[in-house]
């Protein structure tokens, strides 16, 4: 089993099975470009730095990739927008403890940065689900959105946007 | 040997503040989050801040049941989402293209007389909308061009309904014929209530070839000949799946057609072709006795709509 070491922004090393990394478009491109798959190359001796991902977040990303090992990897951005995305139970449980916190947001940003499409899609969907049926003030409080408007401005914006009947 | 950390550094992806709020997410991620939300919830999130409002408006990817562009009373676009919420937009409004970008809808309806300004608006607003059914009223010079535009690059539409109830100028007949000849594969096609002679043998053959259910009964007078009727009949009979076509044909052509083939009588004018089993039915057009209303159905099992 070939292991490739990922190095987080806080200098933690994570040896990861080569197969798992196929889920990350960013790392996969790097591996191909650097010929790390070449039999003559000592992949283990060439750690891949991920300066935009902290160790605790990278650990979560690897945990997610391990669970989804072998899943089909999405290619391109041509998603079927009409398709209803359902967050599977395992992923829901995976996201839940960190939901409403910066950890979940960091995980989402890491998924985007590492180009792990399935993780990004599910993570965004999990965030979307927390908005459903909520009022503005509830969302503000749960997701730390400061109120930049006076009550008068807020009312004006609401009226301007209220084109639905 | 190590890979330089600069190889994987991007400006847009910085380490987040541990106290980050959702506003710390980059625009492209917030946009993806909006894509997953029903319209009402999107609206609630959009009004929380200027930035969220801006991203929400630019995101598109809305899911509608119908979008209707109408000029009947005043030009407006009325869209209904899957939860029956109703949204109004005006053609002059900026950002229409963004609003409808990559949206989906069951039915796209274009209704009422159109001008060149409407044509531009429709082109920009709906160019990326994915619809299943298209209903277009033929009124005015621009309807045909708009229909061609909307059908361009569409390979499969479930239903296409072309309306138009008025007398047509010769150039409008020509325009309509041109449009009919480029209609792509469509499960169900209906041309309703046209008083122009828009149907010829070649157009009938094209429409039968691209559609499972072809309803041209609304075209009052046609130039279909016995050869055209035979071609349509053979296409329906030879199709590997169920096909059905109905249209108005000059009575003389129908009688010639019946003389050339052997049918068994099922009931009165309900006939069945002995060799292929294809059903053929005809009846008098009450408004115009020179024409017969003809229906041809293959002997395959109909596919549920």
Automatic annotation (TrEMBL), chain A:
GO terms for cellular component: cytoplasm; nucleus. Belongs to the SKP1 family. Residues 145-165 are annotated as: Disordered. Pathway: Protein modification; protein ubiquitination. This is Skp1-related protein. Signal peptide: none annotated. Probable essential component of SCF (SKP1-CUL1-F-box protein) E3 ubiquitin-protein ligase complexes, which mediate the ubiquitination and subsequent proteasomal degradation of target proteins. Regulates cell proliferation during embryonic and larval development. Transmembrane segments: none annotated. One of its GO terms (biological process) is protein ubiquitination. GO terms for molecular function: cullin family protein binding. Residues 156-165 have a biased composition (Basic and acidic residues). Keywords: Ubl conjugation pathway. It holds the Pfam family Skp1_POZ.
Automatic annotation (TrEMBL), chain B:
It comes from the Eukaryota. InterPro entries: F-box_dom. This is F-box domain-containing protein. The lineage of its organism: Eukaryota, Metazoa, Ecdysozoa, Nematoda, Chromadorea.
């Amino acid at each position: 089993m070939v292991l490739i070491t990922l190095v987080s922004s806080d200098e933690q090393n994570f040896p990861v099975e080569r197969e798992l990394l196929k889920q990350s478009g960013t790392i996969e491109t790097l591996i191909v470009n650097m010929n790390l798959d070449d039999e003559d190359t000592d992949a283990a001796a060439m750690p891949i730095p991920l300066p935009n991902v902290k160790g605790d977040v990278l650990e979560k990303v690897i945990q997610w990739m391990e669970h989804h090992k072998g899943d089909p990897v999405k290619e391109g951005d041509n998603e079927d927008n009409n398709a209803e995305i359902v967050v599977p139970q395992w992923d829901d449980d995976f996201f839940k403890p960190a939901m409403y916190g910066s950890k979940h947001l960091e995980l989402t940003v890491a998924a985007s940065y590492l180009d792990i499409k399935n993780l990004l899609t599910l993570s965004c969907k999990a965030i979307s689900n927390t908005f459903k049926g909520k009022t503005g003030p509830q969302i503000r409080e749960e997701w730390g959105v400061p109120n930049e408007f006076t009550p008068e401005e807020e009312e004006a914006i609401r009226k301007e946007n209220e084109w639905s009947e | 040997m190590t890979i330089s950390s600069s190889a994987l550094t991007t400006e847009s992806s910085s380490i987040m503040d541990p106290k980050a709020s959702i506003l710390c997410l980059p625009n492209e991620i917030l946009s993806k989050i909006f894509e997953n939300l029903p319209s009402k919830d999107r609206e609630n999130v959009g009004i929380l801040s200027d930035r969220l409002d801006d991203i929400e408006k630019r995101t598109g990817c809305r899911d509608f049941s119908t979008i209707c562009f109408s000029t009947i009373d005043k030009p407006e676009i009325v869209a209904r989402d899957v939860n029956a919420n109703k949204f109004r937009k005006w053609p002059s409004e900026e950002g229409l293209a963004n609003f409808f970008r990559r949206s989906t809808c069951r039915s796209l309806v274009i209704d009422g007389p159109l001008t060149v300004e409407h044509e531009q608006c429709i082109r920009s607003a709906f160019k990326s909308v994915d619809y299943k059914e298209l209903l277009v009223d033929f009124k005015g010079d621009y309807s045909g061009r708009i229909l061609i535009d909307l059908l361009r690059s569409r390979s499969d539409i479930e239903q296409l309904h072309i309306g138009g109830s008025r007398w047509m100028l010769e150039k409008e007949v020509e325009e309509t014929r041109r449009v009919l000849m480029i209609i792509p594969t469509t499960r169900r096609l209906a041309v309703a209530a046209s008083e122009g002679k828009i149907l010829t043998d070649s157009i009938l053959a094209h429409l039968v070839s691209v559609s499972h259910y072809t309803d041209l009964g609304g075209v009052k007078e046609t130039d279909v000949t016995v050869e055209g009727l035979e071609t349509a009949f053979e296409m329906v009979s030879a199709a590997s799946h169920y096909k059905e076509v109905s249209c108005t044909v000059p009575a003389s052509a129908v009688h010639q057609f019946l003389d050339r083939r052997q049918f068994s009588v099922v009931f009165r004018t309900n006939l069945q072709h002995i060799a292929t089993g294809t059903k053929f039915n005809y009846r008098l057009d009450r408004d115009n006795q020179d024409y017969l209303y003809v229906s041809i159905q293959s002997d395959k099992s109909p596919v549920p709509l």
